[in-house]
Specification:
Elements (H helix, E strand, L loop, with lengths): L1 H29 L12 E13 L12 E10 L2 E9 L2 H9 L4 E7 L2 E5 L5 E6 L6
Antiparallel strand pairs: 1-2, 1-4, 2-3, 3-6, 4-5, 5-6
């Protein structure tokens, strides 16, 4: 008799866990994400300027170093200019950004970051900085 009672409690526990799991799935499928704010939707802007600066650390080593570059670029959209800073060692990213100069590009603003998609499809996530740096 004790065996049947333990079996019944085990089945009850499985049924309860399954019920909670199904309710959680139904709730997750029923909720929709909040709509994105207008600043997080893709915008089209024109790249006004691009400036490349070699970031030169002051330590010396007998091993070859990877050169990192700071890219400062300005994007103008709907009457406002956004100046951004992006750090990279990848020369193809630098070339893509320079090729985007004076062209329309897609970008997304989110907080203090700007994610730009170059004409070749690269996504560059940069930090917004003062306009003086561009």
């Amino acid at each position: 008799m004790a065996f049947h009672q333990e079996l019944g409690q085990g089945v009850l526990a499985v049924v309860l866990v399954t019920g909670v799991f199904l309710v959680a799935i139904a709730y997750a499928q029923g909720t929709e994400p909040p709509p994105a704010s207008s600043s997080e939707s893709p915008q089209i802007g024109k790249v006004l300027s691009v400036r490349k600066v070699l970031r030169n650390p002051y330590f010396f080593s007998r091993y070859p170093r990877i050169h990192y570059y700071l890219l400062y670029f300005a994007v103008r959209a709907s009457g406002q200019t956004y100046c951004s800073e992006y750090e990279t060692p990848v020369l193809d990213e630098i070339d893509d950004l320079f090729s985007a100069k004076d062209k329309d590009v897609e970008f997304v603003l989110k907080g203090k970051s700007l994610t730009l998609r170059t004409p070749k499809g690269r996504k560059l996530k940069a930090h917004l900085v003062d306009e003086k740096q561009c």
